Amino acid sequence: MKCWKFVPVRTLAILIFGLALSGFAAAQSPAQDQANEYYKTQDWAKAAPTYEALVQANPADAQSWYRWGVALAGMGQYQKAIECYTKAGDLKFHKFSVLFRTAKAYARLGEKEKAFQTLDKIIEIGYGPGSVLSSDADLATLSSDVRFAAVLDKADHNAYPCKYKPEYQQFDFWVGEWDVKQTGIDQQVGTSIIQKILDGCVLLENWTSGIGGTGKSFNIFDSNTNKWEQYWVDSNGGRIFFSGQLNGKVLDYYAETDESGKKATRHLQFFNQGPDQVRQFSQRSEDGGKTWSVEYDFTYFRKKSGN
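RE: above sequence
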């Protein structure tokens, strides 16, 4: 093992990766290479018998079973293709691919019930979005059935949970463009733009202070803990991680900080005060929550169109 002592880690990784590729290449037989080329060019008439020969030589070759099915379907032999997909599935080939191709074949055969049963299985494993299903020519015969619209809707719910689950909408009252003032005082302290990004999963805060400096925070609902999380960073190098939840019309965030050995608890609150106003109130405790001091108290006023 000492012969590797002076080989840089990066070089060693490249060598190992190269050896792995060499081994993979060696494992590919000429027949496999030829079958893959037919598959790539969609020459189904030649691909089908080539993959058939491969599975006869190695019945445990899940990918060849699957690709044989695709080739057969390409020639209109849908029932036999389904048998190949089933075998590939039994050998633990990629589940969505197997189910998707099987549903397409049933649709082509006019077996709507089996096609929808298979599509339901696709939804059960969490597939989405529906656009892939709705744009597939093989599934076009199902489009006039009311069940197809339901399948597409469920697929979209899988793909875009943040758009549909109400928990992800809890903090929407903060979304918008705001002038920010000291609470109770007509003194502007900054501006902020709160955006929903990543298909509605994240609230992105873009803060600009009136005295210089900027900051951003990412806010997201964690469906595993049923809590909201915020990660704040700013142009001064500051960063804080908050966690909390909605209580009525107030989103309560808490954070534990350690600044130069000085531990503190932060309590950050957002009060929903109607469609055009939000109060942001921050407190700090250095004695475990026994006493609190106010860090800041801001009120957000929604900017009107044209401002």
